[in-house]
Amino acid sequence: MIKRDFISVIATLLFLTPLFGSEAYLLPDDYAMLNYNLSQKIKRAHKVTIVTQSFQHPSLNRALLKHLSSHNDLLLITADQPSAAYFAKYKNTQVYLPPNTFDTTHFKLNFMIIDQSDVCFFSTAITQEKFKKESAYARCSNDEEEIAFALKTGQLLSQRFLPYFNP
């Protein structure tokens, strides 16, 4: 009986933690959990904003394609030409690249905003290889101030970067 109650309490805490705080992931140890949580949030989202050095992550790509197939929006700001080219062809997608004068070796911002209700910050580019093999940190939160900071940063970058397809 005590074991069953303990399991119920732990399950409840695990369920409520994302609703009332932040989630921290130490990579590569927490890779599977981070990947699952992000994929689920992306699939249910109406708008996803990604700012990253590079976005090369097959399972998150699949989640984003499912997201886009439901006529939802994606804003991708990246320094990686292949990542930009991959997503630029889809409807409801805005892709921005740095101008030629921008030194991309110093572009170290990596975050994802999901529906303006969640934000995740990453210490490395959002690539499967880095998430699985490098020691890195990811932190997701539903804190309004952190979301506002990420939104403002994304807005400033989209003003300074160039659209993939110049109008």
Blueprint of the fold:
Layout: H1 2-16, E1 22-27, H2 31-44, E2 47-52, E3 55-56, H3 58-69, E4 73-78, H4 81-88, E5 93-97, E6 111-114, E7 118-122, E8 126-127, H5 128-133, E9 136-141, H6 144-160, E10 162-163
Parallel strand pairs: 2-4, 3-8, 4-5
Antiparallel strand pairs: 1-9, 2-6, 5-10, 6-7, 7-9
Helix pairs in contact: 2-3
Predict the CATH topology.
Answer: Endonuclease, Chain A
Order of helices and strands: HEHEEHEHEEEEHEHE
CATH superfamily: Endonuclease Chain A
| Residue windows where pLDDT falls under 50 for at least 5 positions | 5-20
- With strands numbered from the N-terminus, the spatial order across the biggest sheet is 1-9-7-6-2-4-5-10
User: How many domains make up the 3D coordinates?
Assistant: 1
Q: What is the multimeric organization of the chains shown?
A: single chain
> Helical segment tally?
6
Q: Give the structural class.
A: alpha/beta
Q: In CATH's first tier, which class applies? A: Alpha Beta
What does this protein structure show overall?
The chain is α/β, with parallel strands linked by helices and 167 residues long. It has a single domain (22-163), classed as Endonuclease, Chain A, CATH 3.30.870.10. Helices cover 43% and strands 26% of the residues. The protein contains 6 helices and 10 strands, in the order H-E-H-E-E-H-E-H-E-E-E-E-H-E-H-E. The chain has helices spanning 2-16, 31-44, 58-69, 81-88, 128-133, 144-160, and strands at residues 22-27, 47-52, 55-56, 73-78, 93-97, 111-114, 118-122, 126-127, 136-141, 162-163. The strands form 2 sheets. The chain has an 8-stranded mixed β-sheet with strand order 1-9-7-6-2-4-5-10, sandwiched between helices. Strands 3-8 form a two-stranded parallel sheet. Strand 4, helix 4 (81-88) and strand 5 form a beta-alpha-beta unit. Helix 2 (31-44) runs parallel beside helix 3 (58-69). 31% of the residues are buried.
